Amino acid sequence: MFYVLLILQDEKCGIEITELVSTLTHQRISLGPGTLYTILSQFEEENLIQETKVDGRKRYYKITSTGYMMLTNEYQRLQKMIYDANTLLPSTHN
Amino acid sequence: MKYQMNFMNFKINDRSEFETYLNEKSKSGWNLVFFNELFVVLKKDNIRKHYYVDLNSNMKYLAFRKIDNDTQKIVDFYKEYGYDLCTAYQYFIIYSSNEKLENLHTDDEVESLLIEKVNLQKKWMRIIIPLALSIISILSFIGNYRIRLLLYSNNWAILLIILFFIITICFSLFEYYNGRYKKISFAKKYKKHPLSFN
Question: What is the ipTM of this complex?
């Protein structure tokens, strides 16, 4: 999920990720713990993020270089899509 | 203290139905004590709880039904959000809270990925466990002197073992295909890159 990788450019724990995603998207996206845990464990398996520290029950994660590369690629892909949409949907500028 | 035992069997795809059932029961004061493949035991304590049913994709937990470090990691993660572990059995982990919290799974696509992962592990369990049992039983038959003697002198004993082995394999295959076709169709549909979710 794009937003999770975007937020994990800084070290964050689960609940912080949920709060930041919610704030960043103006409550458009809310992440339950089940959803977030599945995403984080999958990202960890694919070496996109890594666990950095454990503080009591809280586990902190941060993006890896592979994850960062994927994030920038995705950002470029989205930019191209927006560019394409702008050329075909000029009315969106008004 | 009043107890109630309901004969119910919730399958992996019935996660949300199980959650609804527990929450409805809790509204009338009946709370979960434990559950297994056959029944659900509830206790009348008139405390209103909110239940959240989650799936555990941990292979070791599915096999030995014991909360190990990996499962504990998940339990701790949910604790951060205010969910307390209530009970667990096989692929279901039940969390409860005294207040209504956000749903565990807020994205259907991610949930389907989890279901797919659990189903995949269950598929292997269906093959590995009966196969291991067959091998152990055959080895114990052959390892025993008297049984070995019986095998050499009686053809029916060999036939019996072969029959047992065939039944076990057939049962495993039946379980494998049964589980495979029960799997919800959308679980496969969303098998794509994680970044494509949002």
Answer: 0.78
